[in-house]
Design brief:
The complex is a heterodimer of chains A (about 375) and B (about 500). With about 375 residues, chain A is an alpha/beta fold. Helices cover about 45% and strands about 10% of the residues of chain A. Chain A folds into 3 domains: about 70 residues; about 170 residues, Rossmann fold, CATH 3.40.50.450; about 55 residues, Winged helix-like DNA-binding domain superfamily/Winged helix DNA-binding domain (Arc Repressor Mutant, subunit A). Chain A is elongated. Chain B starts with a strand and ends in a 7-residue tail after the last helix. Classes of the chains: A alpha/beta (about 375), B alpha/beta (about 500).
Amino acid sequence: MDATNKLYWYWLSKLEIIGPAGRKRLLERFQSPEGIFRATPEAVERFGGLTPKQLQAWMDCEIRAKAAEEFYLLKERDIHFVLKEESGFPMALREIPQAPDFLFYRGRLPEEHKISIAMIGARECSFRGRKIAQELAGELADAGIQIISGMARGVDGVSQKAALQYAPSYAVLGSGVDYCYPPENYALYEELLRRGGILSEYPPGSRPAAFHFPMRNRLIAGLADGLVVVEARKKSGTLITVDFALEQGKQVFAVPGREGEALSEGCNELLLDGAHAATCAKDILEVLAKEYIMPPKTRNNKKNIFLLEEEEKMLYASVSLEPKHPEELLRLTGWAPEKLMQILFSLEMRGLIYSPTGNYYMAK
Amino acid sequence: MFSKTYGAAILGIDAQMIQVEADVSDGLPGYELVGYLSSEVREAKERVRVAIHNAGFVLPPKKVTINLSPADLRKEGTAFDLPIAIAILTASGYLSEEMIAHTMFCGELSLNGELNPVNGILPIVLCAKKEGLKRMILPLANRAEARMMDGIEVLALQSLSDVVRVLQGGTYEEEVVTIEQETESGELPDFKDVCGQVIAKRAIEIAVAGGHNILFTGSPGAGKTMLASRIPSIMPALTKEESLELSKIYSVAGRLDGEKGLLTARPFRAPHHTVTPIAMAGGGRRPVPGEISLASGGVLFLDEFPEYSRQTIELLRQPLEEKKITINRMAGTCDYPATFLLVAAMNPCPCGAYPNRNLCRCTEPQIRRYQGRISRPILDRIDLFLQIAPVGYEELLQQGEQESSVQIRKRVEAARKLQYQRYRKLGIHTNAELPASSLKEYCPLGERETEMMKEAFYTYQLSARAYHRMIKVARTIADLAGEERILPEHLSEAACYRNEMKL
């Protein structure tokens, strides 16, 4: 594939207003991106497949000039641009319905021979969901699995952060690869660049538009061999990704939640519909990759609580993955406030519990 | 002929004696009023002329000059009407110098010669007494407030003609006014009505005992306002000086109900969040004390803290630090005391349900923005942070044996006494006021406690300020327990209230 052809593709990628369908029609009519570029305005107008606004974008000299300018800077900016027909394009994405024509990425692409699992969930997740995402992602990554997600707030970002401690992780964005959204995940963005990769089908400089995200989700599902839903409300965006995964024939896992909790309703529904239940990494690996051997648990999942005093054990048993207010712990233990706080403090100092927000406490 | 009388001008919450000089002499008939006057004082010229006329005195067609001295001090208010009238009458020969000697006058005149009440009587009478005057003549309507002070003869009269009659030696019948002392915090809401919320009540007790500012966070309906409104019931009684100081503030603000005597109850001010910065801090063209001064010695409760305008919140910085507010006006600078206990309450997020993510769907940036409305410098001045959890059903049903406010107040008073004795040399009253430089001397830690604080410092990643704050709060907890030294259990409890808001 010669560079000029790629340059015309790059120009085409910048015409966001002409979607995949319009692009396809144009390609059919004019054979190649270069053909589209060089076509006379009369020819394009006669072709009739474009709205006036699309036509205007096609003619826009500024976009044409910029495309050339930016294209030659891509390398310098460490942005890779691969076309579907090139060998560097991920196999996994070639096979999905509505496969993208091209892909931008920074860092690296997921390794083809390794298992990839997408972890997704509510942006506004609970502390319990956060905790579960962390542990699950950590365990999976520790077993050598690549975690794919969208770097969003909540479950996405938390999973990737946890995974990066053990293995590379990859994020598919709904904006250009050079645009960190959400901004508070900038540290994660940098870490992903260093140890994994950032992918997007939108050209550099694209802002995160709302309609990008469902399309981005199809890539997340597409890159993964299995999809784990940690927390989801009914009818949430997370379930769009699940739909894509099912369409692509991927395995879907859901973390079972407690009945009656809004943030678990989506997961529980998936389970009822036949999704696999995922309570730990083992559950997932047994379905997806029997040959993977779970590494021995070196991490302190089961905290050493033998050395605790009787009362400390009692309190530790009362805190859970749900943040609890001391008032509630008073109710559970029946202690005087002074005593409760003393033991809370000693557990906190031992690193067994922590307070995620305000005066609430939960198990570490 | 020349004569002079005494009046007083309000500066801040104190009064300064003003000499009112009048000169009536031959020359082109005219009338001059000088001495750096605000427009309401300048208008006294007409009021006084007509009032004198209607009181039945005839002013000769002469040159009348009046000067209010010191002439470089801006004079405001209507309290100068009476001294001006008396000075003119004396200079015109209706009264003699002896008759008006050692007397301070104050009061506003109406055109028919009646005396109307003025604000700030308490500091004016205090000023007269301090300047060594023997008599104070003021409007009848101000009598109750003036009588709160003894050691000076107070004549409260109805009109200008009454004043002249009494000065000329007429009889003065004192109406007996009984000052009804307010009943001891009788009707205040009591903590025994609050079900559950053991930790919150405990935090409030600590806040009041040590003078620590406190911030409640909690979902709507959790009981933040209910708890806060009960704070006055556990505050220690006002000392005599505090009571006088507070009464002066209220007098200047025109809010002192004279019939009830000096204020004895600690104030509880809860200005609405639409309050303007001026109403909060005090000020205005003619400066009056604002909410923070009216809350002096008591509680300033700011419900829905982030809803207050940024400016209103930020202006609390100086008063929280210096216990006073300085107001600069063209007329000069004045200080109002502002020794309030800040009790603020807020929702954790715009919807209020955070951290219950099953109910709260606020996004992280929304929550951060909401909590970010309270700036760090303000948070740094708050010692106790407490999330209030919604009350469980069992607690709502729970009956009896809730501790009453009287019991709590006993402990608070005992703890305050300990602090008062400890800090006598420093001139402060509470642990909260203790400067960091004196912390080592007054709050020494034992070996075990030092080790604990070291651990806490690293685990919580405390700042130096937060570290000091934790020790001060622990000191108060120790005082409540009657312990001389800070013990591990005090530190661990203090750690519980350390948490600041975070996502």
